[in-house]
Amino acid sequence: MKENKHIIYFDGICGLCNSFVSFLLKIDSSSNLKFATIKGESGQKLLNKMNFSNSEFDTLIFQKNDQVYTKSTAVFEIFKTIGGFFKIFLIFNLLPTSFLDSIYRYIALKRYKLFGKLEQCDISKFNKPGQFID
Predict the structure, then answer these.
(1) What is the pTM (predicted TM-score) of this model?
(2) I need a surface site. Which of 4, 66, 75, 100 has the fewest CB within 10 A?
(3) Amino acid 56: pLDDT
(4) CA 121 to chain centre
(5) What are the residue ranges spanned by the domains of the chain?
(6) Residue 113 CB coordination number (10 Å)
(7) 93: which residues sit within 8 A by CB, 6+ positions away?
(8) CA–CA separation, 102 and 11 (whole Å)
(9) 67 DSSP β-pair partners
């Protein structure tokens, strides 16, 4: 039987991204989600495969099996995957993706200023080594 592959690639030095990962670790009771920093080996491989520029990268990526989601679509797919109460956030998915992505892009551009920028990524602070790829 094929194992489900649910990987969230995130900016390891972004305060908002780290807070979101901490939140997801708390609510993912079945530990279905795996995490990798975009600067890590698997993150870099995915960026190259998708022809994304590493220097301009400002989005969360969610790989669900063979599908890859970015920006607001990634966030909604994550909540859909977690299920339960968190499916309530899917109500916002009724708004046009272009509108949601424009909000996402605005926050992404200001994320370091609004939420801080860490000196380095330290996944050990999450205390869930089995859920981190690299």
Answers:
(1) 0.88
(2) 66
(3) 58
(4) 15
(5) 6-117
(6) 8
(7) 76, 100
(8) 19
(9) 64
The total number of residues shown for the chain amounts to: 134
Give Cα 75 to chain centroid, integer Å. 7
Which amino acid is it at 48? N
CA distance 4 to 116: 33
Q: Which amino acid is at 66?
A: D
Q: Across the 134 residues of the chain, what is the mean pLDDT of every consecutive 10-residue run?
A: 78 91 90 90 87 75 93 95 89 95 94 91 76 84
Measured from the Cβ of residue 47, the count of other Cβ atoms closer than 10 Å reads 17
> Residue 62's beta-bridge partner residues?
8, 69
Got the DSSP string for 30-63?
T---EEEETTSHHHHHHHHHTT--STT----EEE
Q: Quick one: pLDDT at residue 78?
A: 95
Task: DSSP for 86-111, please give it.
Answer: GGGGGGGGGS-HHHHHHHHHHHHHHH
The first and second tokens of residue 106, run together, are: 């605005």
Q: List the 34-37 sheet strands across, edge first.
A: 34-37, 6-10, 61-64, 67-70
Q: What top-level class would CATH report for the domain 6-117?
A: alpha beta
